[in-house]
Amino acid sequence: MRIAMLAPISWRxxxxxxxxxxxxxxxxxxxxxxxxxxxTLFATLDSITAGRLAGVVPAAYSEDPTLxxxxxxxxxxxxxxxxxxxxxxxxxxxxxxxxxxxxxVETPVVTTIHGFSSLRILPIFKxxxxxxxxxxxxxxxxxxxxxxxxxIHHGIPVDDFPFDRDGSDDLLFFGRIHPHKGAAExxxxxxxxxxxxxxxxxxxxxxxxxxxxEPHIDGERVVYLGAVGGETRVRTLGQxxxxxxxxxxxxxxxxxxxxxxxxxxPVIAFNRGAMPELIDHGVTGFLVETVDEAxxxxxxxxxxxxxxxxxxxxARFSVDRMADRYLKLYRSILGR
Length: 336
Fold this sequence. Notes:
globular, single chain, alpha/beta
C-alpha cells in the first residue's frame, strides 16, 4: 500500500511547539511507517519523518513571514496531485483546497476534517462528498448534511506522556491564548479558588491577552510559560491538579485534554463540542456549564482517580488505535 500523506504547511511536521494538525499528521505517518506501510509525507522541506519526505515549500508560512500562504499552499497541493499516479491513496490533512483537485486524478482521496473554520466553507465539502472519503475527528464535529466514511478520534503516543501519580496543587491552562479557549475563565477560576495557575500556549489574540490575561500574570499566582514543547510540555501537563478547558466554542477534538489525562491529570471542561466524547464525567474529570460550576467541580477533584485518566487514554486514544482504524478505512476503499 502506497500512501501520499498531505500535511498542512502552517507549521513544520511535526511541529516544534504549536501545530495540532501537523502533529496528528506526523503521529499517523510514523505509526503507519512502523507498520511497514509505504508512506510519502508531503510537507515543508524541514519536516522530519521515518518515511519518504516530499515537498516544495521551504518552511512553514507561520514561521517564515516572507512566504505567501496562498501561493505556497497552491504549489504544495499541486505537487501531490501531479504525482497521484504513484500512490494507492492520497490522505489529505490540509483542509479543503485539495478537494478541488480530487476529480482530476484516479487515485482515491481521504480527507480528515480537522474542524470547520466557518460554515461558509461547507459548500466545497458538499460538492466533493461523492468523490472524497471524509473522516470526522469526533461525532460532535460531523456536519449534519455531509456524507462521512468514518469518525476516527485522534490518538497520541501514550508512552511519551509519563504518568504522574501525584500532580501538584496547581491548576493548568494549556492552549491558544484566545477567547475560544477560555484563558480568562481559567484565571477567574484560579482567583476564586485561590490556587496557582500555570498557563502555556501561543498568544493568538493579542488584544484579548493584553486586556484580560496579561494583567493577572505576576510570576507567582499566575505564571505564563509561553509555547512549550518536548519534556517541558509533558512535565507541565502532568504536574497539575486539573486542566481547565473552559472553551467557548464547539471544539472538534482537544489534544491537550487527552494528553493531560494520559499524564493522570483530570480535566474540567465546559460541556461543548467533543468534550463529552473525551471526558467521562466524574471519572476522568467534570463537564460543567459555568465558571461557578467549574469552581464547584474543583472542590470535588479529589474524587478523581488519576489512574483512571491514564487508563481511559490507553484504551481509547492511543496512536495505535488511530492508525489501525485508518488502515481499516484505506483497505475498505481499495477493496471496493
